[in-house]
Amino acid sequence: NAGVMQNPRHLVRRRGQEARLRCSPMKGHSHVYWYRQLPEEGLKFMVYLQKENIIDESGMPKERFSAEFPKEGPSILRIQQVVRGDSAAYFCASSLLGRQETQYFGPGTRLLVL
Amino acid sequence: KQEVTQIPAALSVPEGENLVLNCSFTDSAIYNLQWFRQDPGKGLTSLLLIQSSQREQTSGRLNASLDKSSGRSTLYIAASQPGDSATYLCAVSRTGTASKLTFGTGTRLQVTL
Q1: Nearest alpha-carbon partner for B107 in B78, B83, B81, B84
Q2: What separation in angstroms does the CA of A47 have from each of A4, A24, A31, A32, B95?
Q3: pLDDT band at A99 (very low <50, low <70, confident <90, very high)
């Protein structure tokens, strides 16, 4: 059973460009979470999604950030008009409701905004 | 608002020592608590998960305890090895369904030869 996959692992963007981060959950998992780890800071929750639904986006910045988890395909975290402060590691996790709710994390995408 | 704190922020010990990492949280209404390790430039690996109704969990040389009433958890590592060097994170979830984790600040562990 493959783990949580994220791509790309590293992404470089110039200010004003768009960044798209992808996350494929573990097989059979229908719950996806996105977290952000800013340099020298802890992980902060951004958004929690189920298939085709956003359940909790309380940690998501109000502007420029959006997330989706379509019926088919990976979850996408989209950052429009990136700024230097968006440089961080973005981690995706997935879980299987009904089990112990352990969240399994992907390797992360490291975004660098020049 | 839940706040999670880990002490110490960094720790260096010689190989073979037993050690304890501490985690405290301000809101005792948690559903579970997880301990993770994070290696530099890598993702998180789940080590142990303790449900709120449990007092401890063990896996190999690791033992995690939970005291909800005092808002504390400890991770005990026996007979430390250089391969244990990593950052250790604790995280709590609040509600009864799969939900967001609130992470601590982490303890950076270095085990020296």
Answers
A1: B84
A2: 16, 15, 11, 8, 15
A3: very low
Other beta carbons within 10 Å of B53: 9
Tokens 């896996």 identify what position? Answer: B59
Q: What is the pLDDT of residues A23-59, one digit of tens each?
A: 999 998 889 999 999 887 889 999 999 988 998 899 9
Residues in chain A: 114
Tell me if chain B has a CB within 8 Å of the CB of A45. yes
Token code pair at residue A112: 């660098």
Determine the pLDDT at residue A98: 45
Nearest residue, CB atoms, B43 vs list A45, A95, A105: A105
pLDDT digits (tens, 9 = 90+) for B58-97: 999 999 999 999 999 999 999 999 999 999 999 998 765 5
Show residues of chain B in contact with A48, CB under 8 Å.
Answer: 98-100
Cis peptide before A8 (omega within 30 of 0): yes
A72 Ramachandran zone, left/alpha/beta (phi>0; psi -120 to 50): beta
Contact B74, B57 (CB under 8 A): no
What is Dmax (Cα atoms) for chain B?
A: 43
Cα dihedral A70, A74, A78, A84, rounded to 10, equals 160
Structure-token pair, residue B45 = 């690996």
